[in-house]
Specification:
19% helix; Leucine-rich repeat, LRR (right-handed beta-alpha superhelix); 4-stranded parallel beta sheet; 135 residues; 2 domains; 3 helices; 4 strands; Leu-rich_rpt; alpha/beta
Amino acid sequence: MEFLYLGGNFISYIPSELANLSYLSCLVLCDNRIQSVPPQLAQLHSLRSLSLHNNLLTYLPREILSLVRLQELSLRGNPLVVRFVRDLTYMPPSLLELAGRTIKSRGIPYSPWELPENLLRYLDLASKCPNPKCG
């Protein structure tokens, strides 16, 4: 199953078993009474679109950030609140950083004449990083 539409059904919770739908690319849960998102939804690695608008969500689990293929996330009409001050100052990674991370983490081979100079500089600096999390 790639598409699941459960909008407008007075659903009050999302069953964690939805995480077993590994090929799901679009999940529509709008116009319900959902109060929380189970962290297990982060296991939906194929998910590209998640519609949660017009529910009762006050927060999202941090695990939602691991949905790397997610292109659309609709949250309007929810009473979302920022739970941590640091979330207010969070700066998402730049496109340069995302490109560098992807090249580095996937071991994509490249030649210096194939990439922009600023990306080459980023990759050069990342290769000298002593922190094991630098990848």
